[in-house]
Specification:
Layout: E1 2-6, E2 9-11, E3 17-24, E4 33-38, E5 44-50, E6 57-59, E7 67-72, E8 77-82, E9 91-96, H1 100-103, E10 114-118
Parallel strand pairs: 2-10
Antiparallel strand pairs: 1-3, 3-8, 4-5, 4-9, 5-6, 7-8, 9-10
């Protein structure tokens, strides 16, 4: 199982980024997937999850209406579209091959993470 995140970077407040997570070793469509993040000096924070059937999507209150989780099963890639970014969105973002209840506890295969820095 391998997950590789990309798309992070430095962006100004109010800007947008799209994170990608390319997976291999399993079929993306068969798994619930989650994005979590970790700010400097803080623990893991759940961001968003998508069910294996694609109809169930959940977002933390802090990112609701600004972030969108999606997947392209044909490309075996998970995405996180982030808009209206705030300084408090800064952190390392990880995709996790697990549902919310496990991912938020650090359980599940995950990638190396991609750094998102929101700063003027």
């Amino acid at each position: 199982v391998q997950l590789v995140e990309s798309g992070g970077g430095l962006v100004q407040p109010g800007g947008s980024l799209r994170l990608s997570c390319a997976v291999s070793g399993f079929t993306l469509s068969s798994r619930a997937m989650t994005w979590v993040r970790q700010a400097p000096g803080k623990g893991l924070e759940w961001v968003a999850s998508i069910n294996s059937n694609d109809f169930g999507r959940d977002y933390s209150d802090s990112v609701k209406d600004r972030f969108t989780i999606s997947r392209d099963n044909a490309k075996n890639t998970l995405y996180l579209q982030m808009s209206s970014l705030r300084t408090e969105d800064t952190g390392v973002y990880y995709c996790v091959a697990a549902p919310r209840v496990l991912a938020r506890r650090g359980i599940g295969d995950r990638g190396q993470g991609t750094q998102v820095t929101v700063s003027s």
